[in-house]
Amino acid sequence: MKIIKYNIKEIIEKYEIRPKKKLGQNFIFDKNILNKITERIEPLNNFLIVEIGPGPGGLTNMLLKKKPKSILLIEKDLAFKKILEDLTSQFSKIDTKIMMQDFLKIDLYNSEIFKKNKVKFISNLPYYISTQILMKILPLEKNVYQLIFMFQKEVADRLLAKPNNKDYSRLSVITQYSCEIKKLFNIRASVFFPKPKVDSCLLSFTPKNKIRKDIFNAIKKITKLAFEKRRKTINNSLSSIEGINKLFINLKINPHFRAENISVEQYTALAVTAVKEKLI
After folding, report:
1. At what angle do helices 170-178 and 264-276 cross, to 10 degrees?
2. Do residues 128 and 24 make contact, with C-beta atoms less than 8 angstroms apart?
3. How far apart are CA 209 and CA 203, in angstroms?
4. What CA–CA distance (Å, rounded) separates 118 from 275?
5. Are residues 240 and 152 in the same domain?
6. Is residue 176 located within the same domain as residue 218?
7. Which residues does 112 contact at the CB level (< 8 Å), separation at least 6?
8. What is the CATH number of the domain that holds 265?
9. Residues 116 and 253 in one domain
10. Are residues 59 and 190 in the same domain?
11. Are residues 220 and 189 both part of a single domain?
């Protein structure tokens, strides 16, 4: 019995599933779309695949068919426990673990299953906490090779945005400092059940080399100040950092620019110097 062969009505009736709006649950049951998504995370055979929010298991089913080394399913909603157990029992040769917990509340990076494996993440992220989940994972640990995440299109545009663009934001800078981001494809709202009001976009994240956590944290602090007051010039929004004007001169950053005019490389240079001189 392959769950993916059920139509939406049969899945809902058999397992008494009711998508919860408050948890941002929108499911994909289209086999072609699910297969297209899982193709982008291959190869799987030497990796632990961590799926966040598998829900009724449509994507999970496709992943298991591709025979990953192991798979970890992290699902907050207990309503999906039975369907995930039924699904994974069909693939008994694959090392599978189900955690019925809130991903935002677990310490995955310090767990044994995480530390002993090469890891890839995949998720059709709930819109309302998509950026929180991404920020929890970043910066990527050395054994994390890829993230394949789905965002609503507006958030994807922010993640990919370049300077001097209205979509360029704190999220753009933090993520682009630590990852190479690639747009894979858009997904129409009509593919989901229930149908959301906006289209989605699938993105791939791969780690950059030599990412330092102290610099990552400094960039978070600097961009928080910069983009909270994005209408102000950068010398005003960062005025609480002692010696900031000297840094602008040394790094050849125009102090009259606004937050969205400063590149990721310039924010990184500010962070590196601020950490070196213990200004943050």
Report:
1. 80
2. yes
3. 19
4. 31
5. no
6. no
7. none
8. 1.10.8.100
9. no
10. yes
11. no
Query: In terms of DSSP bridges, do strands 95-99 and 119-124 run parallel, antiparallel, or are they unpaired?
Result: unpaired
Give the tens place of pLDDT for each residue, 70-85.
999 999 999 999 999 9
207, 144 contact by CB (below 8 A): yes
The amino acid at 276 = K
Q: Are 129 and 78 in contact (CB under 8 A)?
A: no
- Single out the residue in 152, 175, 207 at which a domain terminates: 207
Q: Model confidence over 211-249: pLDDT tens digits?
A: 999 999 999 999 999 999 888 999 999 999 988 999 999
Q: For residues 203 and 70, give the distance between their C-alpha atoms in angstroms, rounded to a whole number.
A: 23
pLDDT band (50, 70, 90) for residue 14: confident
Task: Please name the residues in contact with 65: beta carbons below 8 A apart, sequence gap of 6 or more.
Answer: 91
From CA 37, how far away is CA 53, in angstroms rounded? 15
With tokens 């694959």, the residue in question is: 94
Please count the other Cβ atoms lying within 10 Å of the Cβ belonging to residue 263.
Answer: 16
Q: Which of 34, 55, 135 is nearest to 100 (CA)?
A: 55
Q: At what angle do helices 264-276 and 213-228 cross, to 10 degrees?
A: 120
Average predicted confidence (pLDDT) for the chain = 91
How does DSSP classify residue 232?
S
pTM, entire model = 0.91
Q: What is the mean pLDDT of residues 253-273?
A: 97
Domain span at 169: 3-207
- Report how far residue 172's alpha carbon sits from residue 187's, in angstroms, rounded to the nearest whole number: 21
Structural domains counted in the chain: 2
- What CATH number is associated with residue 8? 3.40.50.150
